[in-house]
Specification:
Family: Belongs to the recoverin family.
Low-confidence stretches: 138-143
Largest sheet: 2 strands, antiparallel
Helix content: 55-70%
Radius of gyration: 16 Å
Shape: globular
CATH class of the largest domain: Mainly Alpha
Distance between the termini: 17 Å
Pfam families: EF-hand_7
Strand content: under 5%
CATH architecture of the largest domain: Orthogonal Bundle
Number of helices: 8
Strand order of the largest sheet: 1-2
Order of helices and strands: HHHEHHHEHH
Keywords: Calcium, Lipoprotein, Metal-binding, Myristate, Repeat
CATH superfamily of the largest domain: EF-hand
Protein name: Oidioi.mRNA.OKI2018_I69.chr2.g4127.t1.cds
């Protein structure tokens, strides 16, 4: 899946559906999003400032593009990250379940208590709490 690869092969899609809990459609959507966000085919932790990274993270968690993040949306992404990390020792040392992480994040960020995070709540919460920023950046632990 290098920079010149424009789509996944049927074999790659089948392998991914067998090894993850994602459907073929979900894998294709994630791949299309990855290609849009990372046209070189490479992720870089150092690209962009904090604001840009948080904007990108908000878009990642806002699965239905409604402009808000629900607990269900965040849980879906956090569970996917957990499944990607598997038994990574650095990750396994943190005992919080995906549900506990999402509950903790929402308890700190959902200022108006409506069960959804607006972009403003998300950005303010992540900027003001280092632990939330770290929790949202679970995928950084892969590198």
């Amino acid at each position: 899946m290098g920079a010149s690869k424009s789509k996944l092969s049927k074999k790659e899609i089948n392998d991914l559906t067998e090894k993850t809990s994602f459907t073929e459609e979900e894998i294709k959507l994630w791949f299309a999003g990855f290609q849009r966000d990372c046209p070189t085919g490479k992720l870089s932790k150092s690209e962009g400032n904090v604001e840009e990274k948080l904007e990108w993270a908000f878009q990642l968690y806002d699965l239905d593009n409604s402009g808000t993040i629900t607990k269900e949306e965040m849980l879906e992404i956090v569970e996917a990250i957990f499944s990607l990390l598997g038994s990574d020792e650095r990750f396994a040392q943190n005992s919080l379940s995906p549900e506990s992480r999402v509950d903790r994040i929402f308890s700190k960020m959902d200022i108006n208590g409506d069960g959804e995070l607006s972009k403003e709540e998300f950005l303010r919460g992540a900027k003001n709490d280092k632990s939330i920023c770290q929790a949202l950046s679970l995928y950084d632990k892969i590198a």
